[in-house]
Amino acid sequence: MINLAILISGRGSNMMAIHQAIQSGKLDAKIQLVLSNTAKAAGLEYTQREGIPTAILEKEANESRASYDDRLTREIEKHPIDYICLAGFMRILSKGFVDYFHHRILNIHPSLLPAFPGLDAQKQALEAEVTTSGCTVHFVDEGCDTGPIIDQRVVPVLPEDDEVSLSERILREEHQLYSFCLQKLAEGKVNIEGNKVILK
Ligand code: GRF
Fold first, then answer.
1. Among residues 19, 109, 138, 175, which one is catalytic?
2. Contact residues for 133 (Cβ-Cβ < 8 A; gap 6+)
3. How far apart are CA 69 and CA 46, in angstroms?
4. φ and ψ at 33, to 5 degrees?
5. Which helix (H) or strand (E) holds 139?
6. 67-103: per-residue pLDDT in tens?
7. Atom of ligand 1 nearest to the CA of 109
8. Are 120 and 127 in contact (CB under 8 A)?
């Protein structure tokens, strides 16, 4: 069993999918904390309804990244956390934070990394006129959507797709992939060698 902190900023559908995978017995994990950097995150309604321990940590005016990340670390360390799951968390994390939680932070990204990192990955895919995209779960390092890739799911890009339809198709795969990767971690089936993940 692994203990999770899930960091969100908005809708929180990946957080909900992880919670539902736990409830249905597909994922041997416990959500110890959902933390949002904004009180406006829609996903907070779900955590309240489901009784999931929740924290809201908003940035103070003129607060430095290091100071925010120190407060974030303290909030996380109030709980017994094995892994931190970024799930639409719209903040760049400092190198200090990433190094401190080395190989314990995961992210989900809506493209087949290293293609289309950063914002609007689905729009980038459409503009590049690729016929295939997908999603990636990876460990977080100090780069933007870099870090060892745990696993990916492939999704077709159809000629009639717009950003909404492609995002929805990718999101359905995201909801499966995050829990799949977490279950591999729970089973001790994830080995990291350099920048490469070996899944057993
Ligand atoms: C997802 O598309 C995820 O890949 C990206 O941000 C979005 C978050 O969606 N990092 P949600 O808040 O989990 O619904």
1. 109
2. 110, 111, 112, 115, 116, 121, 122, 125, 154, 155, 157, 166, 170
3. 25
4. -160, 135
5. strand 132-139
6. 999 999 999 999 999 999 999 999 999 999 999 999 9
7. 4
8. no
